[in-house]
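=== Structure Prediction Worksheet ===
Name of assembly: unnamed complex
Input type: mixed (protein and possibly other molecules)
Chain count: two
Listed entries:
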Amino acid sequence: MDFVKWGLNPWGESILTHVSWTLFWASLVAGLMFLVAHGSYMLLSAHRKRPATETDRLEATFASLPERIERHSLMARLFHWVMAASMFVLLFTAFLPVAGVKFPWVTWHWVAGLVLTGSIVFHIVHASVWLDFWSIWVGPKDMPELKAELMRELGREVPGPKSGKYPLGNRLYHTAIVVTALGAATTGVLMMSRVRTPIFTRNPYLLSDATWGVTYVAHGLAGVALVGLVIAHVYFAIRPEKWWITKGMILGWITRRQYLEHHEPERWRVTANPPAGRP
Amino acid sequence: MAVIHDVMPAFELFQPESTADAVALLGRYSPDAWVMAGGMDSFDWLKDRIKRPSVVIDLSRVAELRGIKERDGGLEMGAATTLTEIVRNPQVREKFGILAEAAELVASPQIRNQGTVGGNVSQDTRCWYYRAGWSCYRAGGNICYADTPTAVNREHAILGADRCVAVNPSDTAPALVALDAQMVIRSARGERVVEAEDFFIGPGTDITRMTVLAPDELLTAIRIPATWAGAVFYFEKVRDRNVWDFPLLNVASATSYAGGRIERIRMVVNAAAARPLRLHAVEAAVVGQPRSEETAERAGQIAIEGAQALRYNAYKVPLMRNLVKRAIRGNGDT
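=== Predicted Assembly ===
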């Protein structure tokens, strides 16, 4: 099986052209298989939840906190849903033709790509200036949490740190999506110089044939990876035990009990009244 | 550049004697099977060794794919009917003269004797960058060599380009779209009938194909409804030499008049884009108008709206405008 496609340029040189679309099917199947495997595991495994009494005790301790805890600002939610919509348009316009549904997809694709790129740029600025930038990243400090999470998934009753603002799985997913989406967006913006748009002047000679080949392959790899990642994301978003997170992304807040049940107040500090004027 | 070789690479040759057998073979061997009717497009590809199918299905022995018969006041032509048979058919000449005229302007008598109407509408583009075997978009690559700053693109598209700027080279295709023809397509999955206008696709829809034909599908017949029988037709082809050449542009129109005004019209231009372009905006603008110089002028201007010339094909813009004007003016028939 070929993972990439090769071609010949006018000088007879062998050049990369694309990823093989077999990888799209592989990513699609892998995403669906993960979904089935995880769903089966959650049904059959002995994973442990934290006891309700622990949360009851925390509620009594933190009774001064508001009933609703702001989790995502309006701007953060707008970014998320605009990015989600553009991502779906990008994936459907990219891969429906591969799956045999033929339609003029290119304009839809690059317009959605620009929306995604714009929202990513906005998000980087917004998160850097107005949000707790480091709260979404993973690092060595998260090892105890990872160990405790794994133990609980394996059915062991273990104490251990809860997450900060974002659960560990959330942060790991964010890291994966940063790498793939930035890869797709960067290569996609370059590729726009090969199509006719009112924005850029076409310049097929912007890069050498070999560099273009790498660019197209990188774009394709990021695209097929996003298929599996988006399947996993949608799956977790609609899982019953994760629904409170999704609801938080819709409404912007979670309950005090959810906050105390899933988060470590020391790692995600919430004040009784959120600062005014926060975007 | 590709070099014509005398000997084609080896392939397994099948010569079915029925449509059912041909379709079954396609179902079994596609996408590695190559369908050959008259061979006018096929032999170039095979001798240049650009296309290397493992199987060739030769339709020349399938008698049911040939011939022209009446159907509901219109006509049904087998896809393997030769262009000469179409040119000489009395019913075609009487009812749908535009098709006979278009077929007669294809290439040369020898090629028309061998070439089929199905092959003429299904033939691949003549973009030499693509046919030279380079890895352009149409060949599965990631660049259009004809749309670069130094490309030689005199024959290429002025409309409908989407990464690839190749054009459809068929003469009969615009005539069939003007006649509101239908394409009968068969595969192991069954039969489907596609409007001629929808049979051809641009690079935006599928950059590696020029028609909706899937690798396992066979164009078996072309039906022309009675709708435009005996209408006023106009066909004009402009090419570099008067025989044996592909169109730089061609125009086909079918018009009916009432009270000196245009009552209905279908107008199609080919070799301006990767598919025959039906000029809907022109049609809408001229219906109800008299056949006059003013109407022709307006039609010509509307036709070229959005045209985008490449380095060497700017001449196609005024050429298309003038062809549309001439089609509105007509040959003096009403």
